[in-house]
Amino acid sequence: MKGIVFTEFMEMVEGKWGLDMVDDLIDVVNPDSGGAYTSVGTYDYQELVAYVVELNKRTEIPVSDLVYTFGTYLAASFASKFTDFFNECESTIEFLTHVDDHIHVEVRKLYPDAELPKFSYEQHSADALTLHYESTRNLADLAHGLIIGCAAHYGDKIDISRSGEVRDGVAYEEFKLTRIP
Q: So what's the pLDDT on residue 144?
């Protein structure tokens, strides 16, 4: 997993619970990386899982809620750091139609070893979309948070219904989105 995910996670934890919490998580998890991350590095995804599980123990916030919250945080951070991607679109739904065939293509140019989730979609109208998520990492809660974070960026009110399953170690999730005028 790319280091930017780790650096953003640690920034979120520090912002919400303080630097002592970051230090405690690193001490308890004791990751192979030593807890030192660069945004361009590549790290074991299981380290992030271990941090989230430990944060759950310390805060008693459900893991799925922590991952979702991180998704909303990550969307806001990406919107400020990668403004070109966000400025190319006028709405959440338009943005989501560009994730796999434009944004992830650009990410792979910079980071050929990046293991990204796969997204496909069915656009029903300018205000309705079914987004399909597929990943071996099963971070659909993160994707959900990213969608909500994108909606906040664009000022869109979005109704989302979600269903999914895991088959043969791969998570398949379907997000049905409708923009509310």
A: 97
How many other C-beta atoms are found inside a 10 Å radius of the C-beta of residue 177?
22
Residue 121 in tokens: 């979609």
CB-based burial label for 158 (10 Å; 0-12, 13-18, 19+): buried
Mean pLDDT (10-residue bins), the chain, 181 residues = 94 98 97 92 93 98 98 96 92 93 83 86 95 94 97 97 95 96 89
- Write the CB contacts of 150 (distance below 8 Å, at least 6 apart in sequence): 75, 79, 86, 92, 95, 96, 156
Which residue(s) pair with 87 in the sheet?
A: none
Contact criterion met (CB below 8 Å) for 162 and 173: yes
Q: Which long-range contacts (CB under 8 A, 24 or more apart) does 23-26 make?
A: 24/58, 25/51, 25/54, 25/55, 25/58
Q: Are 98 and 150 in contact, with CB atoms under 8 Å apart?
A: no
**HSE of 75, CA atoms in CB hemisphere, 13 A:** 23
Structure confidence at residue 149 (pLDDT): 97
| Structure confidence at residue 101 (pLDDT) | 85
Region label for 78, one of left (φ > 0), alpha (ψ between -120 and 50) or beta (otherwise): alpha
Query: What radius of gyration, in Å, describes the C-alpha atoms of the chain?
Result: 16
